Amino acid sequence: EAGVAQSPRYKIIEKRQSVAFWCNPISGHATLYWYQQILGQGPKLLIQFQNNGVVDDSQLPKDRFSAERLKGVDSTLKIQPAKLEDSAVYLCASSPQTAPTTKLFFGSGTQLSVL
Amino acid sequence: GEDVEQSLFLSVREGDSSVINCTYTDSSSTYLYWYKQEPGAGLQLLTYIFSNMDMKQDQRLTVLLNKKDKHLSLRIADTQTGDSAIYFCAESNTGGFKTIFGAGTRLFVKA
Q1: What is the pLDDT along chain B (111 residues), one digit of tens a residue?
Q2: What Rg do the C-alpha atoms of chain A give, in angstroms?
Q3: CB A101 to CB B97 under 8 A?
Q4: Do B92 and A102 touch (CB under 8 A)?
Q5: With DSSP H G I counted as helix, E B as strand and the rest as coil, what are the percentages for chain A, rounded to 5?
Q6: Peptide bond into A25 cis (omega under 30)
Q7: Which residues from chain B sit within 8 angstroms of residue A108, using beta carbons?
Q8: Contact assessment for residue B87 and residue B74, using Cβ atoms and an 8 Å cutoff
């Protein structure tokens, strides 16, 4: 079974530039998550989709971050404009809808450095 | 609000047992999880326990839950160098709409 795919693997940008990350979840997984993991911290949820609808985006800084999940499959996360404090690993995870628990399957992440 | 706390570092010798501890604050937590993260990789689910259980064993892994004290532990028997990684404790409540992670415990295994 293919895992969660993310690209790019690394990205270096200057502050005030924009950047986009892409995620392809495990086939059949209805729920998709974007997490931000700052160095030395645990992942923090940014946004959760159920199919192509947003379930929770309370922690998403909406003045600069946006995310979409077209057709309930792939998702993109965008930052515009980026700030220094956005330097982090952005993890995408997916979960099967019918699971009784929230077992998350993570991609390898995109490491973003904002200079 | 919900919070999950873990100690930051643990160092053990190869062949010894490792015990990683975690405390959480949300009394409505239904499921508690242990994830493993190796360098440059995403998190991988190791095991989980339902809140009405006290213990769960899975090969070298033993999870103990003290719901009264909101304390969770992960014991790794016969720790190997390949177990060196960061271990995250996490919790979610009924419906699992939100999973809260601790900051992670970095396990060092000395040969």
Answers
A1: 668 999 999 999 999 999 999 999 887 778 899 999 998 888 999 999 988 889 999 999 999 999 999 999 999 999 999 999 999 999 987 655 678 899 999 999 998
A2: 13
A3: no
A4: yes
A5: 5, 50, 45
A6: no
A7: 40-42
A8: yes
